[in-house]
Amino acid sequence: MKPAMTRLLAFSRGGYGFVAAHWAVLGLTLATALPPSASEEGPIICPYRLATGHECPGCGITRAVAYSMHGEWDKAQGFNRAVWVVTPLLIFLALHQLLRSAQRIPAVARNTPRWLRAGPRKPGPPPVTPPATHPCQ
Q1: Contact 101/89 with Cβ under 8 angstroms?
Q2: Separation of alpha carbons 38 and 83, rounded Å
Q3: Is residue 26 a contact partner of residue 65, using CB atoms and an 8 Å limit?
Q4: 22 in any annotated domain
Q5: What is the mean pLDDT of the chain?
Q6: Does 5 fall in a domain?
Q7: What's the domain count of the chain?
Q8: In-domain check, residue 130
Q9: Is pLDDT at 81 greater than 80 in this prediction?
Q10: Structural domain harbouring 72
Q11: Confidence of residue 85 (pLDDT cuts 50, 70, 90)
């Protein structure tokens, strides 16, 4: 059986892991850029809570991550205690995805137009001059 970290890395190489890593980057960016109080406003979107009226195990994790990204761990733990696992996992997924993306970027992208590429241009073929005509003809 593979160690847990190896399985997590294998999961993040494609499919759902690839999507989860991109969501982690987006979520951590928003959680860091916006004030934590912004996550407290808005409608309840948890289907379990809407159907039963009780909180599910994941309720409050968005607010908890937002507060933890701003260093307010006491408030974050008050929303959901899983924040101690979820926040480091999201940071790991985001960093892992960013590093993998940086390794895949070629020096000069093949799709980049020639006029956007940096560096000196390669000299082209010499211009073709028409043959000189004789004045007597």
Answers
A1: no
A2: 18
A3: no
A4: yes
A5: 75
A6: no
A7: 1
A8: no
A9: yes
A10: 16-37+47-108
A11: very high
